[in-house]
Amino acid sequence: MLPRTMFGRALLIIVVPLVLLQAIATWIFYDRHWAAVSWRLSAGVAGDIALLIEAMQGAGSDTKAARLLEKAAAVTDLDLKVRAGERLPPQLPSSGTLLEDQLTQAMRGRVNLPYRIETLGDPYAIQISVQLSEGVLTVDVPRNRLYSSTTYIFVMWMVGSSLVLLAVATIFLRNQVKSLRRLAAAAEGFGKGRPVPFFKIEGAVEVRQAAIAFMKMRDRIQRQIRQRTQMLAGVSHDLRTPLTRMKLALELLHDDPAVEELKSDVAEMERMVHGYLDFVRGEGTEVPVDIDISLLLEELAAAMRR
Q1: pLDDT tens for residues 191-212?
Q2: Which residues are CB-contacts of 139 (< 8 A; sequence separation ≥ 6)?
Q3: Using CB atoms within 10 A of its CB, is residue 291 exposed (0-12), middle (13-18) or buried (19+)?
Q4: Which of 17, 83, 93, 141 is least buried, going by the fewest C-beta atoms within 10 A?
Q5: Which of 93, 51, 90, 91 is nearest to 68 (CA)?
Q6: Is pLDDT above 70 for 79?
Q7: Cβ–Cβ under 8 Å, residues 232 and 280
Q8: d(Cα 69, Cα 56) in Å, to the nearest integer?
Q9: CB within 8 Å of 294: residues ≥ 6 apart
């Protein structure tokens, strides 16, 4: 399940703690801060309604009650109406949202009268109906009195900052991994015998140390190859003198089957020496050629019989 590349694993090391931190912070925020703010806002609305009902009950006349409603609507930012002679319909089932639960608890604790809470499909207002002795008091509460915009600002700020940090981390990790990929390509090319030019050593301290160690290893291996090639050239060159003497001695001998076989062996050794020298000089060519299998087997059998 884990990423196979170093870039993916390093990115996962950054992303997982970041997501966990955001999840824990968001949970604590919603469980503590948002619930507390929603409760205080709901309690404030319920307190305004309870205070208005108490003031209306002490107004003494319908004219004073109407004037009190106008003043309360202007001061509390609530749309207040009294429908005289009406009865409150049954309470709707709760939707289970945090806002409705907080508002229900606040109304139950501050307004000791039958009430009904409904949204009416309006995304910007909630209607609260309270049963009074003379009728039904309807209160249209704007949602800005029940919601705190700082909640969404906090969440958006947290998500946005996390995305910015993730983008910056991705760029830095990509630069670090790029130097490792360059080092891996150089090691693979050198392992296949290709020339590896000096490349720029960059990245973290550990990556630089690995690159420097690779360059030193390349120099040591190339030096060993040069020394081996020089030794091979010296040995091959020194073998040419005794081979020449052996050829001269064989030419002075009488015709004999054993002499011909020795001449064949000397010629083969000479070809091998010339091949080594050509390899040292960089002039060796190895191309596929047609060969007679029967003749090859006869030569091998003759060599084994000797």
Answers
A1: 877 777 766 777 778 778 888 8
A2: 49, 78, 79, 80, 127, 128, 129, 130
A3: exposed
A4: 93
A5: 51
A6: yes
A7: yes
A8: 8
A9: none
Q: Are 253 and 202 in contact (CB under 8 A)?
A: no
Helix (H) or strand (E) holding 125: strand 125-131
Rounded CA separation 249/295 (Å): 28
Q: Which residues contact 9 (CB under 8 A, 6 or more apart)?
A: 2, 3
Q: How many CB atoms lie within 10 A of CB 179?
A: 19
pTM exceeds 0.70: no
Q: Return the half-sphere exposure (C-beta side, CA atoms, 13 A cut-off) of residue 129.
A: 17
- DSSP designation for 282: T
Under a CB-based contact definition with an 8 Å cutoff, are residues 118 and 92 in contact? yes
Count Cβ atoms within 10 A of the Cβ of residue 107 and give its class: 0-12 exposed, 13-18 middle, 19 or more buried. buried
Residue whose entry in the numeric block shows the structure tokens 């309006």: 122
* Strand 125-131 to 135-142 pairing: antiparallel
76 pLDDT above the threshold of 60: yes
